[in-house]
Every structure is written in structure tokens, then in C-alpha cells.
Specification:
The chain is of the alpha/beta class. The protein has helices at about 45-50, 70-75, 95-100, 110-125, 140-150, 170-185, 195-200, 220-225, 230-240; strands spanning about 5-15, 15-25, 25, 30-35, 60-65, 65, 80, 155-160, 190, 205-210, 215-220. About 30% of the residues lie in helices and about 20% in strands. Strand 5 (about 60-65) and strand 6 (about 65) form a beta hairpin.
Amino acid sequence: MTNAVETQGLSKHYKNVVALEGLSITVNPGEVYGLIGPNGAGKSTTLRIVTTLLQPTAGGVKVFGIDVLDKPEDVRKIISYLPEEAGSYKQLTGREYLNFMADFFDVDDSHRTEMVNRGIEIAGLDERIDDRTKEYSKGMRRRLLIARALMTLPKLAVLDEPASGLDVKHAYYVRGIIRDYVKKHGVTVLLSSHNMLEVEFLCDRVGLIDEGKLVDVGSPKDLTRKYNATNLEDVFIKVTEGELAKGTVRPERGTGGPANALGMKANTTQGSDGGPGTGEGSDG
């Protein structure tokens, strides 16, 4: 079976700053995989590399067998990306925004209508879908953005802090939508989050990152058992503040070895390369 995401020896350096160092992870098709770690651990950097927006200093990435560095356009056709700070074009209504985003996809009118209707259903904003997004609360806006990310039924949805800063009601709704869509449509999700409750509820497996390195990986239940912890928050503290976080990286089983073991292309060029399927500006 082809992995949904596979990184090999992924590194990203910015002059004297090491954002990632030899990160190797695998994400299985149809699973929700969460990246957790302190601020600056390399979570968002990893997501941006996977979504073709950032080139690594070394190592490689494949998404459903497609090399991200060799064929970024092909990768963008099967993914959706929601950045933490994504915006929604304040002068548009929610419906207009979803229609605008649907225009980026090469589909016929019937599929386009189906896509937008799916987005409206996911957002769950009822009559407020026809209000301008500048009148939305943060929670309503985030629900609209989640709808934009999922309405295309991507093979891989990459979500950076999907429920960041939301109140309990909206965060609960967003988590439920993500979980339901994974189950209903077989969408694979790679996400990052600081909310340990969110991670425990959503994720089949979790990768703990510290200082750009993978420290440990497993299901939330397995990790809490392994570290004799009561919950994933306790695991997070023990791992990132303990000796393990400063020791040797533990690559996932089956992902060890040099980056070129998968025929991946290492790249030393820094830069970004975006596309309509990966995100949008903050204001219209």
C-alpha cells in the first residue's frame, strides 16, 4: 500500500537556524496524523514542505507516491491546505467565498455546484452563509475555511491548528466535521495542534517533534501508556522536557535509511511555490 505521506531525512535550515533535522514520518491512507511539539519545533515548516509551499534543504517527501519536489503541480491536485492564519476575503459572503474558491478547480458546472453545496453543508452556518465574512466571528470564519479545505474531497487535507483560538462550541464543531469527513469519505488528514484534547480526539497516531526532530510516534493511547501518563498533555511535557527530547531521534519503523532510498530528490534551494489549492490571502 502506498503511504499517504512519506518524508525521508527532511531538513530545513535558515542560515544559523535549524527548523527541521532529518525528519522521517509516514502517514497511512485514511488516518488522521497529528504533529505536536513546542513553538518552533518544526511543525508548520513540515506542513509547508508537504504542501509544496517550501523547499527543504535536504531530504524528500512523497504524497501518495508523488514526489513533492519533482511534481509539485500533481501534488496540488490531490491536496488541500489550511494555514493557521488563513483569511476569507472580508467583502465576500460565505457563499460567494466558496464559489470563488471553487473557480480554481477544473470541474464542470454540475461538479462545481456539488462542491459548493458540500462546502455550505460542512460550514453549517445556515442563513449566515449569505452574510459578508467580515461580520463573522472567528469561529464562524474558521468553520467556513474548514469547509473550503474539505469541500473538494482532497485525498490529503493538511490542517495547521484547525481549531486554534476557538471557543468550546466552535472547536467541538470543527473537530466533529473533520472526524466525520475522514470516516465518510476516506480523506487522509495531516494536522498540527497545540490542543492536546483535540489531538487525542482526532488523531489515530501522533508524532512528537522537538527541535526539528522526531522524538516519538504512536497512538495517543499507546503513548500515554508508554510514558505512564494520564493524558497526552502529560506525555508532551515529559517528552519535550525530559532527556529523551535531547537524545537520538527515533525514526518510524520502516522509514530509516538515506533520503534517496525512495528515489527522492534532495534540494538545497530555498524558496516557495504556491498554488490555488494550497491557500489564499488574508483579505480581499
